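Give me structure tokens for this 314-residue protein.
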Amino acid sequence: MGNAGTNISDTPSFMLTGFPEMGALEPLLTAVLLLLGAGSVLGNTLILFIVKEEQSLHQPMYYFLSLLAVNDLGVSFSTLPTVLAALCFHAAEAAFDACLAQMFFIHLFSWTESGILLAMSFDRYVAICNPLRYSTVLTDACVAYMGLFIITRSFCMVFPLPFLLKRLPFCKANLLTHAYCLHPDLIRLPCGDTTINSLYGLVIVISAFGVDSVLILLSYVLILRSVLAIASREERLKTLNTCVSHICAVLIFYMPMISVSMVHRFGKHAPEYVHKFMSLVYLFVPPMLNPIIYSVKTKEIRRRLHKILLGTKL
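Here you go.
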């Protein structure tokens, strides 16, 4: 190969990018992201504690919610350190292996969240369309197997990504667009052929996000058909109300992701900070909003929160 490219051993680090173009607003953005990160950690920790302590929440829907909370904590802990380092201390450098590890975990948690939301939609489908079979279909063992399958599927999808990158020579300036490492950002930098990386990335996006979103939509079509068959309007609204939290969780996960994708594809002439901001919304907002949504919509969680915060029962 000669001097055709710089080997990975000669590429010890990547430069992460904050928001230098925002100037005086950068400290405000840092404070907002720190607040979102702290809210996410506190909210999801409280959800895990409440589900563990509240006996009435020991049922499939809340087991999936606990898995979602653990996953959201993972998203926060895997992104917040480098983002704050880049924004607060301008320590905008990540070692090559550390960058690959961060990329692995960010994508792992993203695909896992998609799988959890699909499992939660299946839970709502069984609860509404086959309520008499709910306890026999969604047993504790079934929930455990579903959780294990979701994590294994995500791991198997993401595992090849670091190795596919490691085989490539890097000879361009190792400047990343974001304050964290993402696969679409990293595959712009090698001077070798990245066709396999791009194709593999496309395949796993379609087979995970694409399939999951279609199945979630299908489950709600079936749920809506079942709900419309209920004679009483009050009963229809009551039944649909049990899906509101999950619908909100799906929307706050998929809408920012679709927005990021649209900006990358059709907003090529948009300012650089727009791309960065949309990606931060995608990573930081859902983990913070999920606990709030479920706390507002779940009576048992509200009651326990009230007891924790005020030391009294409602």
